[in-house]
Every structure is written in structure tokens, then in C-alpha cells.
């Protein structure tokens, strides 16, 4: 079937406005490691997909799924060892205060639970998030997700603060003054809640502010923001759905920022594409939630999901993928910074492990966002066999998050192709 | 590891109040067809699990998952044929007005979307549900789910109506008068919304009222209830998460009730345990939702999920499982009615296809619910190798929903064991 026929069928069966990448959409049929192949047999270097974090169709994960799917797949109202083995292994990677786990199927479900857990624990309702984010798609979680349009929340329980942008910095500030200014925005949000008589429940942010555009976070900002929230009686929910599982060159996105979340949520790469998500939290918060809410998730924590998730953790460990993300990530950043020296369109280069943002601008002094050019770059890269996407408040940040087994050779192909595309623009 | 050690680990890693079946919880290790096996090698006849609807670990479904998981598993921002093949096959089973599909991972997600879709379409907020139900676990959907405790909804947008119980019938009524009385309750709910200035969005119910206790629905009730809702500007959402995919001896639970939903939701058995759910609706409702909400679900509609779901539909068709549910279901009902003649504890026997409710009472005249005895029966059946559970407003309805390949021989084991247990009680 031609791509045109497939697209017609898609619109007819699934309706309009189903997000689709690229002016010439890709019809993929195969994935392997960092490569995907389309229906014409053409291979693309995957610089976008963080979900298949240990590589597309990693045989260890596929085997784990097949073996367990052929043995038993049932809900957690029976005892099964897989969920316990997984919980022990996963929880051992966190600060010891984060000692309980709940499993679901999607990051949205995890954030929905996390918000309710924070509200129940604190007795508050108010949630602080940033002004350009996305945390998922349930009715509750969508109230935070302003990145794709107005959230139309009329409950008065959401306060959005400016995300900690050190490139288009608040009032042009720098250094500690910039950190002070962004922390003051948290204080102001707390004050607005207070004046409206809304008790604070907590703050929910991605610890690397990935959807906002992956900024270089002003020094000490996150720890100070969290301290302000806690001082006002709220808890800190870290949405690690994108930042988790080695993506940043550390196992968790909050590591190295001097702060331990009260609750954190996991998803996307957790089982390499098999639908699994988690809420990890301080025991007392999970116990309080569980004691007050009859929460049961039919598919959550089933033996197949847990086998897949366990295989992912094992592969990350055995193949040294966190260290690879760190070292290849540094190599990519060096390459991108070299590109910046040659291409004026590149306003800012950002990276953490194997997660990169490249802020494209029309004018380096004014930092005028270049969303059209960003779209052209993304589409031209696809034509030249390298897939990525864009993100950010202004839609002008190239977003790159290849599978973690990304090699230096893969990196050089990405850098070289991007150099050519920027040169030909 | 002993069951005691596993339970200790479970409490420590997952927290308290994780629902678990039976006084002596089952540690299952294997499933095959209608059988599950525990860690000691003991086999149990599965009369409970509707999720593995074509049988535990059906080789066709396992193969479909393995094959696709080894080929490609990615989100729907690329074109893939599996979701389109599945959509065509699934939609062909419904009334032609139900012509669009959205895929997610859990029934909760599907009902969350369905409620928002109804609200967006009608411009209303008010949802009618029953007073003893469960539709899922997101913040929004939990507001309807009063079966496991108070919902504590303070939005004024939920009206609960008495579920259509023809056993403990409203005011002791019968026949058309009973239908009239339950429909009048819908009218009253609409009137309460109207007086409170809440515009009606719709009614969300399971078309067989499974969680309420699977009643013999008063003649013509559902169609008249839906007509009342539509006349007041609302839409009808059928939650077919339990009633779908052949369970009732028809493919869909709403069939034969003289009504076509505007929106319906699917889940649990949809992919035999692989996390897949769907919203199916009239095209204009999905198009309106999609045009107003940037909805994207990372795992929803991935090629592996669609391969699994497609295999389930094919197996249901090829193995004649709907007809089997109908004929074996009738056999079970006959057997249960024979038991009722011998055991006074049985107040009422209900069944639709391979979904059975048996209402246990202390006193047949007063119909006094017997929840303690119900629990004893469930636990004693488990000891004798047949697993089931209980449900209903009073916790006194034996709940049985075996995998669809349940045979007459399986049925006779169920009936015989239940006869023995009731005799020994």
C-alpha cells in the first residue's frame, strides 16, 4: 500500500490531528539498535527515540517478553515473583528514602497518581509546574500541560512559573542573580496560592526541563526551588519519564542537583516500549495513598511487563549504557559546539548525556527563535537519513535523544549530516 | 521463597492495601488455556479471569507479540500498518455509525478520554453513572467509582442513579412498572443537574452492569435510559471494558438491548493481557475531540499492541468463541439453577454468556445479603482447585468469568465443586 493510501486510511479510521512526524511521514517497518528501516528498505539513524532506550528490539528484552508471555500474564491479585524482583532492583538505584513502588502502564497514569498522592499527603490542592511543559494526557495531568495549547484550567489549583531558562534569561540576568530571580518566581507562585486560600500540595517538574527545551539549569536552582516548596508545606514530584534510565549520563535526571524527590514518576524507556510506568516515593506517602484509595491497575505490574522492565535495567547495567551516554554525549556536545562556531543559526547548544537541545535563532544578539528553520532542518535531516524532532516553548529547539547504545561513529554521522544540512539551508 | 516471605517482600516494596485474592493467596507461575498452576505445581480451573479471554498464553497471541516485538515497536508518529489493519477489523464489528477509534493502554485511560470527549462535544459537565460501580482509576474516572468507598466528589458534576436491579427490585416492583421506576430515576438525575445549573454531558455505564452485580436488566431499561439522556442533550458512553469481546455470548455487551452507544470504551480482554485499550465513537465526536485536544499516547497503538489485539480478534472468530460463550454459558446457567433448587443460600442466579453472578442470601424472602458466606465459598472453592471472586453492592455476588474457551467439562467441574462446597458449608 502506498504512503498516500495509508495516510488516507489513517485519517478515515483514526480521525484528524493525529500527530505525525515530517512533511513526508515515515512508514517504518523494522528497528534494530539505533537504526530504523522504512517500507522501501531505507535505513535511518534514530536520533529521536528515547523509548527503545537499550536499542530497538533488543534481543534480551524481546526474549524476556516472549518467555514470560508464554508462561503467565496476569494481574497482581495473585503473588508473582517478577514484580518483587523488579521492585528490589529498581529501588536499590535510588536514595534509600525512596523505598516503595507502584506500577502502571503509562507516564500519564503515573503523574495522575503522583499528583493525587501529593494532595492526599499534604491535604493541599495547589500544584506548581512550569509555563511550557507537558506531563501527560489524563484530565488531571493535562491541566499542567500548556506546551501544546492553553490548558483552560478553571480550578485555581495550578500555578505556572517561568521555566529556568539561562539562555533567554529572565531580565537578562546571570549567575546567582538569575537563580535568585527564578526562585523568586516560585515564592511568588506560593504567595498567589496563599492569597487565594489554596493550600500547596507540591511542585511537579521534569528535573531536566526536557519539554521546555532542556536548558542549562541556573546553578542550584532546583534544590532551592524544592526547598521553597517544602518550606511552604508542599512535596516535590520529579517527572523522570523522559530523564530517567541513563538518558542524562546518570541513571536519574535529578542526580547531581543536590535534591531527592519525595515522589518520582517513570515511564517511556522503562521497558523499552512495552507499556510500563511507575511511581516511586517515600514509603509513608505510598502507604498513605494506598490506605486511603483502593487503587488497582489491571495491567500494572503484570509478570510480562516486569520481565521486560527487569531486562532493561539489566542491559543498561551490563552494557554500561549510562557511561556510554555520558562519554558519547560529551563527544556529541563537542561536535555541536564546533558546528555553532560555523553556523550562525545555532544560538545555543545544550546537552545532558544523550539528550540534546539545539536552540536555533535568526539573530544571535536578539536570540529570535527560528521555528521555520528548525522545521526545515528536521525535515531535511530525515531526507538525509537521520531522524530527530523539535520542542520547546518557541518550537525552535532541535530535540535529539538517540537510543543509549549510540556510538561515536553514530555521533559523527549525526554531526556531519547536521553540518551539511545547516550549510545547505 | 515461601509464600510468607513473598508476602513480606510485597508489603515492604509495594506498601499496604495492595488487593490480593483469597485468605491463602495464590502464588501462580503458569497459565495455559483455562488453567493456572501455582508454585507447588497444583492446577486450578480459572473461572475468574476475563483478561486472558482466548485462554492463558494462547500461542497465536504470544507468537504475534514475539514476532512484532522483534521487528519494530514504536509510537504512532510514524505510519504503521498494524494499527490500520486492526482499526478496520475492529470497527467492522460495530454499527456503522461507530466508525473511528483511538488507542490507549488501560481502560481507565479510555474512560478518562470518553468522559472528556462527551463534555467537549456537548459543552456540558454532568455525568450520570450508577451508585455502585467502578470504571477505573484516574482522578477523573475515580469520581464515578463508588463501589470501593465514597468518591468524595465535590464538583457537583456527577449524579449517581440506582442500578437496574430486578432481584432486590426498587419498591418491590416488577415488569414494566420496574422499568418505569428505574427510568424515572434517570429523569430525576437529569432534573437535579438542571436545577443545579449543570449542563448534562452524558451517561457512562457498563451495558451489563457487571460491577453492580450483573443483574437481569428490566426489559427495555437501557434503551429508555439512553433515550432520556439523549433527549436532555447528553451522549451515551458504554463502558465495554468488561462486557466486550464475546464475554456475554455476543461480541458486545450492548448488542440486543436496542441501543447503539455514541462512545464506547474497550480494555481488559482486548489483547489477552497485553496493555491495550480503545475508545470507539461516532466519527464526529472523535474528530471534535482530536481537533480541540492535542492527544498523544506514547504507547497507545504501537505495532506490538496492535498485533496482539489483532490476534485476539482473529482467534475469537476462528475458534468460534462467541458461540462457545453462548452455549457453554447456557449449560452453566442450567447447572446453577439446579444448584439453586438444592441450596437455600443461592438467592438469585444470573448469567450472560460466560459471565455469571450468583447472589447469596441468608434468607430468600428477605433477600438478606450473605457476604461472609460468599467469602467462605470463594475461599473454599480455591482450596478445591476452582478460582473465582465476588462483587456487587453488598459483596455477596459470586463473580465468575472464565476464559472463553471454557468447555462443558470445565463447566461441570465448576458446578460440581460449587455443589460440594455449598453442601459442606
Topology overview:
Two copies of one chain form a homodimer.
Chain A: H1 3-14, E1 28-32, E2 35-38, E3 43-46, H2 59-71, H3 81-91, E4 98-104, H4 107-122, E5 126-130, H5 139-142, E6 158-161, H6 175-196, E7 200-205, H7 221-231, E8 235-239, E9 263-266, E10 277-282, H8 283-292, H9 303-318, H10 321-342, E11 346-352, E12 355-363, E13 368-369, H11 371-383, E14 386-387, E15 389-391, E16 397-400, H12 408-424
Parallel strand pairs in A: 3-14, 5-6, 5-7, 7-8, 8-9
Antiparallel strand pairs in A: 1-2, 2-3, 4-10, 9-10, 11-12, 12-13, 12-16, 15-16
Give structural attributes:
homodimer, 425 residues, alpha/beta, Aspartate Aminotransferase, domain 2, Aspartate Aminotransferase, domain 1, 2 domains, 7-stranded mixed β-sheet, 5-stranded antiparallel β-sheet, 39% helix, globular
Describe the structure.
Two copies of one chain form a homodimer. With 425 residues, chain A is α/β, with parallel strands linked by helices. Chain A contains twelve helices and 16 strands. In chain A, the strands form three sheets. Chain A has a seven-stranded mixed sheet, sandwiched between helices. In chain A, strand 5, helix 5 (139-142) and strand 6 form a beta-alpha-beta unit. The longest helix of chain A has 22 residues, at 175-196.
Query: Roughly what percent helix of chain A?
Result: 25-40%
- Sheet/helix structural class of chain A: alpha/beta
> Rg of chain A to the nearest angstrom?
21 Å
* Largest Cβ-defined interface: A-B, 94 and 94 residues
Q: Which strands sit side by side, in order, in the main sheet of chain A?
A: 4-10-9-8-7-5-6
CA-based shape of chain A: globular
